[in-house]
Write a structure and sequence with these properties.
Length: 285
Amino acid sequence: MGNALVRIVVSKFGEVDNESIDKVIEAMEECYSRLAPHEVSLVDLYVFERSASVEAFLTKESREVGVVSAPFDELFFAMHDAWRGTPRIFLCFERMQKLPGLVRIGGIRHEVGHSVLHGSLHYYLLPFPTPLLEIAGQFNLSFEYIANLLYLISIAVKDYEVSRLLYRRGYVEDQVAYAKHLLKVSENDILSWEISRGKPPAEALCLISCLKATGCAAPLLIDKKIGGEINRHLMESLSYLPADLSVPLLKVISEGFPSLEKDTLDNIDRMVRECRLIFETVFNR
């Protein structure tokens, strides 16, 4: 199956011209062939004209499939999941049109990478790792809280794995552009922090939510040409956090991500262990 052509089944919501869809398909096909060998033979591509229709669609899906995933954040114009058993990629053209070409193509390739590495339900129905249950016991955290925590850590790990794969296969320039896009501090980030301040469980969750963007950027830090620049953007992206909290977060980023190996579930386990440092720091301030 390795190098077979991937069948891309398009579902369109709203008015999106065929030429734009053809360009997306072309980019996806090129990426699938460069990432071969892999197991993907079929992928569903959902193309939306407007963000409102993406949000409505995902709300309905999460009700039907019974998952609570994070809202489709402003920064995200592209998404991947496998809740129906096959890999699905969602693109919002209203958001894509506002972005530079390199960011767009970087995001499309990122989702293709997810379908290659995480294209089955196995990567979405995650067991609670033992270290997570230990953290829950130690800091008296609710089931709902640790479910959110597992979700945030797992998306950070999966994003790191995808960035690492794309970087190793020679996608550099577009992945740099995409990582910089994700590392931009939004008003939402600052607002979330202000609301969480002084409440240890909320503060810890807020810090851990920073791992997604940094996970995308982390594999690029080793690059001789662009590593320094990415590191600068990464530091800037955390500059609104108090220094005593950004230090343990940076330790998790600089030591946790590079220690990840091939197995996604093992990697999630490992990253949960690393994140204990964040809880110990926040709860003992």
